[in-house]
Write a structure and sequence with these properties.
7 helices, 31% helix, three-stranded antiparallel sheet, globular, 224 residues
Amino acid sequence: FRRVLFRSLSLSNAFDREDVLAFDKRIRAQLSPNLSFVYCAELKFDGLAVNLRYSDGLLTSAATRGDGSEGENVLANIRTIRNVPLRLRCDPIPSVIEIRGEVLMFRDDFKRLNERQHRQAEQQFANPRNAAAGSLRQIDPKITASRPLRFMAYGIGELLGSKLADSHFELLQWLEAAGFTVDSERRLCHDVDALMAFYEAISKKREDLPFDIDGVVYKLDAYP
């Protein structure tokens, strides 16, 4: 186990337009009127939340979200995931940065894994999320390496030594440049109508996405 300095908090839920309007009103009431009220809309990945810690550009620890402060040490297994950079590809390199994201399994990969499990007379998984979580928590990293896992980055926790971006959207661009896979569906939205339009568009294409999602996430883009 490891303790994180910046807790991983849960997201608040919104189920209809009235909830989104209330969210927008609450944000505007709490923050400076001079702040640009642009939102970043993203997919909410249905996987296992993980924190990756890099020191001087090198991956040094990895933990599941756990209770938000403590999680399981999964560094050896994370190192086997092909799209997790072991060294950051960026300049300048922060002295310390914690990358937050989800480990998941694409639907086609999940199907092939279950077919393989069936041929080998081994237990099949109920869904991609369970398959990803079970694969990442294996005692033997070789088993994890044999599973088609992917890491999708969506934010950061602790950061020391370098300012990376002035907004969340810019941060996602930095993460992509540093070697991480991020949400390609992300959009900047200037009002509630745009937020709802993003939700409706994703709802229509949800079944065609290569992976499962829990919905969408709205974040204030500017960093106060």
